[in-house]
Design a protein that fits this description.
Oligomer: single chain
Shape: elongated
Number of strands: 9
Strand content: 5-15%
Radius of gyration: 34 Å
Largest sheet: 6 strands, mixed
Amino acid sequence: KEVGIRKVAGSSKTDLIKQFIGESVLLSFIAGIIALIIAQWALPTFNTLVEKHLIIKYQSIYFWLASFCFVILTGILAGSYPAFYLSSIRITNALKKATRSKYSMLTPRKILVVLQFIFSVIMINYSYTIIRQTWFMKNRNTGFLKEDLIFHPMTSDIQKNFVALKQELFNTGKVMSVNKTNTLITSSYAETNNLEWEGNKMRGNFDLVTSNADFVKTNGLKLIAGRDLDLSSYPTDTASCLLNETALKVLGNKKNPLGQIFKENGTNCIVVGVVKDFVNDYPGQEIKPLLV
């Protein structure tokens, strides 16, 4: 009706296009300002949620230029349908309400509304999944002692004076255990796939950790069977190894793996202990078989 009356009053198609596009861009600008206010208001809460420090760079000319272009583009896209489609309707059809067939089930409005709801449902479900996954990773039982555990990268001085440094740390009375490894407890640094068990070559990769001694004790791990690596009590532990639960499953859930020979890259390793699974990599991943 509006299009029909305006055409009767003398408006041309160009005038109607300018009007619809102009109204849409104006609404887009208002919406942009409101969105910016909401974003600024919600940013502290969002930063707390994602544990990041995000800011809106009001002083950046690129931010305002990008925002301006985005608002203009949104306004033009939103106003294109009424501007180009409705302005082309004949006066008689517009005034007689004959702009739509009674058999027409699909209209651009319906399609856009349905698409909007589809995207909304997808994003809501995706957000819910991410929140649940993040909560799971933050609260997942890592299997090792996170509190009071300190890591220091190996240096040439520490390597040279490791025994003296270890004793000095014990003398402070504040250190319970010291361990030297090739990687942090929280990362998967090395892998090995050249493994043999009971004469059979193993398929797949095992995470590999090298340790001098006291690996279980220092990291607060739990032993399911056997003992920790202990060079002071067992000098032969230079040829000993530990497995985790997942590694034991890969080996066929052998009931008593202790004392068995495990070959790694042609070198014999005697299994002296089985460690309860712990998270030694990204907390969202499955635990891999581990050889220490």
